[in-house]
Amino acid sequence: MACACSVNEPRCPQQPKQLHGILMNKPTSNLPKRHCMIVFAAYPLSETRVQREAEVLLSAGYNVDVICLRLPGEPARDVYKGVRIFRLNNFLYPRLAKRGGLAGKFLSYLFFFISAGIQVTKLHLGTAYHTIQVHNLPDFLVFSTLIPKIMGAPIILDLHDLMPEFFAGRFGQTGNLAAWLIRRQEKWACRYADHVITVSEHWRQALITRGVTPEKCSVVMNVADDRVFKRDNGKPSVRPEPGTFQLVYHGAMPARYGLDLAVQAVEQLREDIPGIHLRLIGCGEHLPYLTRLVNELGLAQHISFEGLHLAEELPDIILSCDLGIVPYRNDIFTDGLLPTKLMEYTALGLPAVAARTTAISTYFKDTSVTFFEPGNVEDLARVILQLYRHPDALAQLALRSVVFNQQYNWGKTGSAYVELINDLGKKRKLSR
């Protein structure tokens, strides 16, 4: 099933003309600060973290550019909510993504690395950036900023994922040459960057043990954007469809995220819960397999694949459901992963079922999230059925789920992030 990728914002493919009187690489103090982000993904559809960070900087007075992948049908130049987007063609990526494997991933990364390096250098030579932020994967993408760095721009490496754990979890490779190279490139990338950001204290501590100095490493959590994911948004209440028990998952769909387990759990529950329906929002490499599995099990009436959606569209979808699910398997990568989707469910007051991993159970308690044993289909089906049969418990879980977001929210996190970027920008050295 194809992903529905559409952006209903005005397009502006032309680049703004450079202002007269600006000295090359010497922005005047009365002009907005300029920040650039580089990400190996689509924008704004694929990376809500990048979108949140870009928009909060924009609201703080920055001019923000994003260099990203170009999806079929998207313009090369665009403006979305005030953020300038420079989309790069990566003709190798679709073919290599289908082929899979470590070599295919590396080659697709390398092609984008070269293109992004050329693009960010051209933009920086036009009017210098105050700060440049590179999002992984891959870590070595940070080296695409070499020329701007030489010219004085502070470089920030934003580690959404830790690559050694990511590839160990996916490919099961920890002791060969490829694994060694992945560990080394993380070390070199962190040394090269002027500052490193990661998504949880769990991963920050892992980076510190690997040699990153504590003062050089900060946490910007993937908390829910409370401008979007809020219970009272002024709209009419969205309720689940009568006679159904709606489950929802949104986000990426790799094998390690356990969506096949969710499909199997639905198959086990369809007699006990005739109205059960699982809505899968997003795309990913595991999608073709999931589609075949649903057809083989005869679950087309119980499971729907709904493609990608803008972040602004997700709250209405989520609130039309009864239960959010995070069915992760537990491996070296997912054990330390704190999923944004879980925070978004709880921000909206939607009860959630999640795998009991180290990172999730560190931040979420049994009173706010219902846990199941990772990788255990029977246990997942059991807790879903238990909540279905006890609507009072489901309602209480919904009330308690918002506790997390009272402590961790984008209002607080976004302000701290802007302050961090401001401080790093003060260290910029203009080239002569």
Q: What do these coordinates show?
A:
- This protein has 432 residues and is an alpha/beta fold.
- The protein has two domains: 34-223 and 410-424, Glycogen Phosphorylase B (Rossmann fold), CATH 3.40.50; 245-407, Glycogen Phosphorylase B (Rossmann fold), CATH 3.40.50.2000.
- The chain is 39% helix and 15% strand.
- The protein is built from 16 helices and 14 strands.
- It has helices at 48-59, 92-99, 101-126, 146-150, 163-171, 177-192, 201-209, 259-269, 287-296, 314-319, 340-347, 358-363, 377-389, 391-400, 403-407, 410-425, and strands at residues 34-38, 63-69, 77-80, 83-88, 131-135, 155-159, 195-198, 217-219, 245-250, 276-281, 303-305, 323-326, 352-355, 370-372.
- An eight-stranded mixed beta sheet has the order 3-4-2-1-5-6-7-8, with helices on both faces. A six-stranded parallel beta sheet has the order 11-10-9-12-13-14, sandwiched between helices.
- Strand 3 and strand 4 form a beta hairpin.
- Helix 1 crosses helix 16 and helix 8 (259-269) crosses helix 13.
- The longest helix has 26 residues, at 101-126.
- The protein is globular.
- The relative contact order is 0.11.
- Mean pLDDT is 86; it is low at 1-28.
